[in-house]
TrEMBL record:
One GO MF term attached to the UniProt entry: ATP binding
UniProt keyword list: ATP-binding, Leucine-rich repeat, Nucleotide-binding, Plant defense, Repeat
Protein name: DH200=94 genomic scaffold, scaffold_6937
Biological process according to GO: defense response to other organism
Domain Disease resistance protein winged helix: 109-179
Organism, as annotated: Coffea canephora
Pfam families, sorted: LRR_14 (PF23598), WHD_DRP (PF23559)
PANTHER family, per the entry: DISEASE RESISTANCE PROTEIN RP, DISEASE RESISTANCE PROTEIN RPM1
C-alpha cells in the first residue's frame, strides 16, 4: 500500500467500496462515517483496516459505528502519520475474535516482505490446534475460511489466487507485521532467532522459529551454552540456514523437546537424513521435510502414531516402508521425488507405496503415488473415500483405464494424473464426469487417444483444467452445458492439436487461456489473430489469453490480451 495520502474523494470511494460493495453510504451513517474517515487522514492502509472492521458491524445500528469513532478520538490525537496507522491497526486487531487474533499473531513467524504460502500456513494453524471444528468441514477448509476473514479485514494481502476464493500466496504489510510482532512478544507466543546465541531464549519458549541469516559466523553459536527446550511444542525453519548452525540447533532441540508437536524443516537442502531422534517424538502431528535433501524414510516412521501431516515433496524419497500403515491419524501424505531436471517428466516422479495403503482411512491428500506396481495398489486407493486431493503417476499400459472407483470419491477436489498410458478405447473423463466437488484436473502425459469430449451436464464445478504433453491429441470438444464454471484452461505441449477446443465460446466464465507448443498450424493462426477471424470471435470473451512462443533467445510469453503477469 502506498503511504501517500489520498484526497477525500478517493478516500471516500475506497472506504465505501470496501464496506458497501459499490453502493452508497446509508444516510444515517454518513456523518459518523466521515468522522471516522477523517481520522485516517487519507492513509490507504488505515482506511482499509478500519473499513474491514466496520464492514462486520450492523449497518442498521449507528451506535456501533459511533463506538468506533469515539475510540479513535483519544487514541489518535496528536499522532504522526505512522503512529496513526499503527493505532488503527491495533484497533482492528482488538476487534478480532480470539481465534483470529491467534491466527494473525502466528504470522509473526515470517520475515519482513516474505511471500507466505497459504497451504503451508493453514496446515500449521491446524497442527497448532488454532482451527476449530465445524460439522461437515475439514480443518483445512475452516482454516481457509479464517484466512479469508483476515483478508476481508485488510490485515492480509493476497498475492496469488489458486482458484476463485482460495488464496495461494499472501503477505502482510510491514506496519501490520510490526503490530503483530509486538503483540506476539507481549504474549510470549513465538521466539524468533537466526540460530546465533540469543540472550532472551529461555526454557519457557513454546514455539521457536529460525530465520535464515547472512551471518555465517558459527563461533558465537558454538561457544554458547546448550539451550534447554523442555517446553518447546513447535520448531520451524523459514528458508535454509547455515548448515553447521542448523545441525547444532536441531540436535539441541531434538535432544530435549520430547513434547514437540510441529517440526517444519522445509527448504533445508542440506538435510539428507531424518535424525533418529525425530522418531521418539510421540506427540508429533506435523512433519514437513519438503524441498530437503532427504533420501529415505526409515521403518521407525511407524512410531509416530499421532502424525497427521507428512510432507516429502521435492525430496529424493521414492518409496515408503510398510510401517507407514501404522499412522492411522495421517490425513495428508505429500510425496514427490525430485529427479534431474533434464528428465522428460520435468523433474518429478511419484512414490511407491505399500500394498495395504487403503487402510489409511483418514487420508484427505495423497500425492503423488506411483501405480507402476500394478492393479493392487490402484484398487487400494479406491478405499480412501475421504480423499480430496489425489495424484497418480505411471499407471501401467495393461491397467490403462481410469479406475471406476474414482466415481465414488465424492469429496475429490483435485486430481493429477501423470506419465500414464490410458488406453485409446477408454474415455478417461467418464468416471470424473459427475464428481460433485471436482475443481481441478491435470493430465500430463497420461492419454494416448486423439480426442477428448467434455459431455453435456458434466464437470459442473471444475474451475481449472490443465492438459499437458498429450502427444497424440488432435481435437477437444466441449458440449453445451459442460464445464460451466471453468475459469482457467491450459493447453501445453499438444503437438498435434489442430484447432482450439470446439465450442470454446460456450465457456462464458473462462478468464484465462494459456497455449504453448501446439501444432505449427494452430500456433501460426494464433499469432495472426484479428477481429475478423473465427478463432478470435470464439475467444474474445476471455479476459486473458497468453501463448508461449519460441524465439531466437528461447521461449517467451506473448500476451494476446489481458493483464500483465
Amino acid at each position: 500500500f502506498k503511504m501517500a495520502p489520498l484526497s477525500f474523494e478517493d478516500s471516500w470511494t475506497l472506504f465505501c467500496s470496501k464496506i458497501f460493495k459499490g453502493n452508497g453510504c446509508p444516510a444515517h451513517l454518513t456523518d459518523v462515517a466521515k468522522g471516522i474517515l477523517g481520522k485516517c487522514q487519507g492513509l490507504p492502509l488505515a482506511i482499509l483496516a478500519i473499513s474491514g472492521l466496520l464492514a462486520l458491524k450492523d449497518l442498521n445500528i449507528a451506535e456501533e459505528w459511533e463506538i468506533v469513532r469515539r475510540s479513535l478520538v483519544g487514541e489518535l490525537e496528536g499522532s504522526g502519520m505512522l503512529d496513526r496507522v499503527r493505532k488503527i491497526l491495533s484497533l482492528s486487531y482488538n476487534d478480532l475474535p480470539c481465534h483470529l487474533k491467534t491466527c494473525l499473531l502466528y504470522l509473526s513467524i515470517y520475515p519482513e516482505d516474505y511471500e507466505i504460502g497459504c497451504h503451508r500456513l493453514v496446515q500449521l494453524w491446524s497442527a497448532e490446534r488454532f482451527v476449530g471444528k465445524r460439522e461437515g468441514m475439514t480443518t483445512r477448509d475452516i482454516g481457509f475460511d479464517y484466512l479469508r476473514e483476515l483478508v476481508n479485514r485488510s490485515l492480509i494481502q493476497v498475492t496469488q489466487i489458486f482458484y476463485e476464493g482460495i488464496p495461494y500466496a499472501c503477505r502482510i504489510h510491514d506496519l501490520v507485521r510490526e503490530v503483530v510482532l509486538s503483540k506476539a512478544r507481549e504474549q510470549n507466543m513465538i521466539a524468533i532467532t537466526t540460530g546465533q546465541c540469543t540472550k532472551w531464549l529461555s526454557e519457557k519458549v513454546r514455539r521457536l522459529v529460525v530465520h535464515s541469516s547472512s551471518n555465517n559466523n558459527t563461533e558465537q553459536h558454538q561457544e554458547s551454552q546448550c539451550y534447554s527446550f523442555n517446553h518447546l511444542r513447535s520448531f520451524i525453519t523459514i528458508e535454509s540456514m547455515n548448515p553447521l548452525i542448523f545441525r547444532t540447533l536441531l540436535s539441541e532441540v531434538l535432544k530435549s523437546s520430547r513434547l514437540l508437536k510441529v517440526l517444519d524443516l522445509s527448504d533445508e537442502e542440506t538435510l539428507e537424513k531424518i535424525p533418529n531422534e525425530v522418531f521418539n517424538l510421540y506427540h508429533l502431528r506435523h512433519l514437513n521435510l519438503c524441498r530437503t535433501g532427504v533420501k529415505a524414510v526409515p521403518n521407525f516412521i511407524g512410531k509416530l502414531r499421532n502424525l497427521e501431516y507428512l510432507g516429502l515433496r521435492e525430496t529424493q524419497v521414492k518409496e515408503l516402508p510398510v510401517e507407514i500403515l501404522k499412522l492411522q491419524k495421517l490425513e495428508h501424505l505429500m510425496v514427490l521425488k525430485k529427479v534431474d531436471v533434464s528428465d522428460e517428466s520435468y523433474g518429478y516422479h511419484g512414490f511407491k507405496a505399500p500394498s495395504k495403503l487403503g487402510g489409511l482411512l483418514a487420508l484427505q491428500s495423497l500425492t503423488t503415488i506411483d501405480a507402476s506396481s500394478g492393479s493392487v495398489i490402484v484398487k487400494e486407493i479406491g478405499a480412501l473415500t475421504q480423499l480430496k486431493r489425489l495424484g497418480i503417476s505411471n499407471l501401467r499400459r495393461e491397467d490403462g483405464k481410469m479406475p471406476k472407483w474414482i466415481a465414488h470419491l465424492q469429496s475429490l477436489v483435485r486430481i493429477v494424473l501423470c506419465w500414464s498410458r490410458l488406453r485409446v478405447e477408454e474415455d478417461p473423463l467418464e468416471p470424473l464426469h459427475h464428481l460433485p466437488n471436482l475443481v481441478t484436473i491435470q493430465f500430463c502425459g497420461s492419454y494416448q487417444g486423439e480426442g477428448l469430449c467434455f459431455k453435456a451436464g458434466g464437470f459442473l464445478k471444475l474451475k481449472k483444467l490443465y492438459l499437458e504433453k498429450l502427444e497424440k491429441l488432435k481435437w477437444l470438444k466441449v458440449e453445451e452445458g459442460a464445464l460451466p464454471s471453468l475459469q482457467e484452461l491450459s493447453l501445453d505441449r499438444l503437438p498435434l492439436l489442430e484447432e482450439l477446443p470446439l465450442d470454446i465460446q460456450q465457456l462464458r466464465n473462462l478468464r484465462k487461456l494459456y497455449l504453448s507448443e501446439l501444432s505449427s498450424q494452430l500456433m501460426e493462426k494464433l499469432e495472426n489473430l484479428n477481429e475478423e477471424t473465427k478463432d478470435y470471435r470464439n475467444i474474445a470473451h476471455i479476459s486473458e489469453v497468453v501463448i508461449e512462443l519460441w524465439a531466437d533467445e528461447g521461449w517467451r510469453l506473448h500476451r494476446l490480451w489481458g493483464k500483465k503477469m
